[in-house]
Amino acid sequence: MNTSVRMYLCDGKIKIYEVPSAPHAEVAGAIIGFMSIWNMQDFRYGTDATTTLGRGSGREPDVYVRPRHRPRPQQGAPAADRYGNAFPTMMIEVGFSQSLPDLHRTAIRYLGQQTTIQIVLAIKIFGIRTNALTNTSTIALIAALYLRTSPTPLVPTRVISFGTANPDTNTVNYITQQMNVPPGSFVGVGRPDPNNNNNNFPPCNAANIPTYTMNIPGTELFDGVPANNLPAGFPIVPNTLPVGFAAGFNLDLYELQVVVREALNI
Question: Where is the stretch described as Disordered (predicted)?
Answer without folding.
Answer: 51-80
